[in-house]
Design goal:
heterodimer; A: alpha+beta; 6-stranded antiparallel beta sheet; 6-stranded antiparallel β-barrel; B: alpha+beta; 3-stranded antiparallel beta sheet
Chain lengths: 407, 155
């Protein structure tokens, strides 16, 4: 608009026209500089000092000190952390733990069971040397850690659920249990009640629930199948339809209580579940021989050629592979659709056994199916040792999609 | 009603309907449907070359209203067992025993057992009798198709 107005201002004489044009160009240039760049995205990157000041502002809310004092104290945290590491390695037989006290006065407190004078050597020249207090403690950090491990291992062997931590300030191990009577009776029966000496016990209603990764190839009593999602974007975990309905998902990071969402039979030997509570993450992964692999896409039954090498992971037989030798196996009634896939190998080994049902079948990063069955109990059977699975298109037939990782 | 063909059809229908309305005891079930012992309904699979399903399940073997069920303590309903074709039942004496194809006792009522196989849903009576030996009306669903590797966990 500004340019169009400038066009109206061109003078009759050539010099004036040139001047005017030059002026117009200058004005145009200045105007463009003044415009807000609507197409530029503004990224606000905090400089180093600004980030600490932002954190310090939070500290000020709690501790009622100036922002500069807050910055100073936060700045010391790196050095204080280094001091702790040095004391752990340098004074293991006397160091009882370290913490930062904020109220009623700011100080760094160090627990020692002896050798207090050695602390001076560690803090000499540090900016917080004048703010250190050494206290006498009954137990070293090493002793507390040993005590914690001992009680954890003992309670695990006695099947007593518990959680524990070391309270450095109180210089003790703290134990949380669901049933304190069970704790004492179990330890008493084992003659180990003395393990509770100097341990603080609290009865709680529940423990911290970790976030568990949910993916194919793990323990659902059957084997967990691929992570899937429906048309509403609801994620869940699949397994074979013929598996028992009531399941938990077990992983090294925790146990997840599941609820059944739907179940099918026939060609789609399929069911899927979702966690009942807590926050857990469904992953586009499948366990294999060395860890897990990401799943990038699927292969339908029609795209799986006879003779292809197909692998699977099952809870009982683990990671096994075989060659596709049939795409028209009729499963037991009422799964008697002749759409099941069979793999075999001339090594006499049994490739699937009870517990493997529902587990992932794959080739590379491609999902090929879920384990349905096998021939494991009759060595005279012509297909003895073979593995049978349902192809993945019978998952999508039910309105579910296998969760894929981005490549 | 004067048409002889029509009368024949009506008569045939009447006979069929009369047969359908009789009780199980009166209708004389087929030999395959008859419980091997008057007190226990022993449901079995028909001979099959199909692959075994591979789901695991554990529970107590109970006799409930003449039906053999595997009852887990997971809060679920448990399953009516459908045994392998070659299995049989022994109800002599005080115990109810399950025998495998070699006539060995693999479990008895009261045992905690581990089985494998798979769950099947409720089927219509016709579907059930097409696929299994026994009647769907004898014992309630859900059913568990039991593989031959039945093991006792505790007695």
């Amino acid at each position: 608009m500004f340019v169009r107005a400038q066009k109206g201002m061109v003078m009759a004489h050539s010099k004036q026209r040139l001047l005017s044009a030059a002026g117009s160009l200058l004005l145009l240039f200045l105007a463009s500089c003044a415009q807000t760049p609507e197409t530029l995205s503004e990224i606000n990157v905090l400089a180093d000092g600004e980030a600490l000041r932002a954190d310090a502002a939070e500290y000020v809310k709690d501790q009622n000190v100036s922002i500069d004092e807050a910055v100073r104290r936060l700045d010391l945290q790196d050095d204080i952390g280094r001091l702790e590491a040095e004391l752990v390695s340098g004074e293991p037989d006397t160091f009882g733990g370290l913490w930062i006290q904020h109220k009623p006065e700011y100080k760094v407190v160090i627990n020692m069971t002896g050798g207090d004078e050695k602390v001076a050597d560690y803090i000499r020249g540090t900016p917080f040397a004048h703010e250190v207090e050494v206290r006498e403690a009954a137990r070293t950090l090493k002793q507390l850690e040993t005590q914690q491990r001992s009680i954890i291992n003992t309670l695990r062997s006695l099947s007593v659920p518990s959680e524990s931590s070391i309270n450095v300030v109180m210089n003790r191990v703290e134990l949380a249990v669901l049933d304190s009577d069970l704790l004492t009776s179990a330890l008493e029966a084992a003659g180990l009640l003395s393990l509770l000496k100097d341990i603080s016990v609290t009865e709680v209603k529940g423990f911290v629930k970790p976030t568990v990764n949910i993916y194919a190839g793990n323990d659902m009593a059957c084997t967990s199948g691929f992570s899937v999602f429906d048309g509403n974007g609801l994620y869940g975990i699949s397994t074979a339809g013929h598996c028992n309905d009531a399941y938990d998902y077990y992983h090294s990071t925790g146990t997840v209580d599941l609820r059944l969402l739907a179940q099918w039979y026939g060609s789609s030997d399929l069911q899927w579940h979702r966690h009942n509570s807590g926050s857990h993450v469904y992953k586009p992964w499948a366990r294999d021989s060395s860890g897990y692999r990401e799943i990038y896409d699927n292969a339908n039954r029609i795209d799986q050629p006879i003779g292809a090498l197909v692998c699977k992971l099952g809870l009982t037989t683990g990671y096994t592979c075989g060659y596709l030798n049939s795409k028209t196996v009729t499963a037991r009634d009422p799964y008697d659709a002749a759409t099941y896939m069979r793999t075999g190998r001339d090594d006499g080994k049994v490739r699937s056994k009870p517990g493997d049902s529902g587990g992932p079948v794959y080739v590379g990063h491609q999902a090929w199916g879920l384990t349905h069955g096998g021939y494991y109990d009759d060595p005279s059977h012509p297909n003895y040792g073979d593995h049978v699975y349902m192809a993945t298109n019978y998952i999508t037939d039910r309105g579910l999609r296998v969760y894929h990782a981005p490549r | 009603m004067k048409d002889p063909k029509f009368r024949l059809i009506v008569t045939a229908l009447s006979v069929v309907l009369a047969g359908c309305m009789t009780t199980g005891a009166d209708s004389g079930p087929q030999q395959d449907d008859q419980p091997q012992d008057g007190e226990v309904h022993f449901l079995r699979q028909r001979p099959s070359d199909a692959p075994n399903m591979l789901a695991p399940y554990e529970g107590e073997l109970v006799l409930s209203e003449a039906c053999l069920r595997i009852q887990n303590d997971d809060g679920g309903t448990g399953y009516t067992a459908i045994w392998p074709y070659e299995f049989s039942l022994n109800t002599q004496g005080d115990s109810v025993q399950i025998l495998n194809g070699d006539k060995e006792v693999v479990a008895q009522v009261g045992d905690q057992i581990s089985v494998s196989g798979g769950e099947i849903p409720q089927l219509s009576p016709d579907e059930f009798e097409d696929n299994f030996i026994g009647s769907a009306t004898q014992c309630a669903s859900p059913y568990w198709i039991v593989n031959s590797d039945v093991e006792v966990i505790t007695q």
